């Protein structure tokens, strides 16, 4: 079976973004909808809505607006890859092309913290990206994946871990 070549989305970011949340590669539902975290079972938008006090069922554009207003950028590590299905474990490592983070950080020089939505996003970033942007002064934190496939933690446990975004945002705003 030939694996399809998949392409991620452009970054969602205003020039004044201070925090960056990185996924690995959008799943099938997200790719079909052309929206980050389109799978209704993915807890990402519910968690963001709870942290930043907006309606998780608002339009996609309204949810993106809320993230931007909170100075949060959203992107994926992988620009393209081959994969069957939606699971990160099914990504063919030899097919990975990563996004241009040198250009991103040059255009978004206020970003001071990167949060990884799960282990695959972190491992891909550390393997393929970090060697190219090592001089950019950033803090990094892996958070539990919001994917429904990551069922070892409850929603409440994931939400508690994701509170770190709020804490880092508060530090960024006060400094």
């Amino acid at each position: 079976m030939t694996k399809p070549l998949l392409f991620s989305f452009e970054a969602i970011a205003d020039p004044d973004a201070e925090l960056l949340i990185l996924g690995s590669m959008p799943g099938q539902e997200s790719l079909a909808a052309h929206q980050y975290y389109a799978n209704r079972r993915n807890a990402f938008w519910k968690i963001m809505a709870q942290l930043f006090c907006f309606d998780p069922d608002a339009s996609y554009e309204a949810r993106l607006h809320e993230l931007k207003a909170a100075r949060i950028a959203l992107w994926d590590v992988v620009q393209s890859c081959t994969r069957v299905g939606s699971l990160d474990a099914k990504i063919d490592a030899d097919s990975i092309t990563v996004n241009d983070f040198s250009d991103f950080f040059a255009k978004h020089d206020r970003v001071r913290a990167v949060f990884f939505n799960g282990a695959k996003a972190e491992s891909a970033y550390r393997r393929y990206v970090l060697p190219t942007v090592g001089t950019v002064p950033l803090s990094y934190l892996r958070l539990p994946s919001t994917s429904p496939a990551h069922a070892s933690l409850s929603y409440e446990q994931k939400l508690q871990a994701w509170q770190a975004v709020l804490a880092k945002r508060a530090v960024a705003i006060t400094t």
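The two ends are 52 Å apart (CA to CA). The chain has a mean pLDDT of 87.
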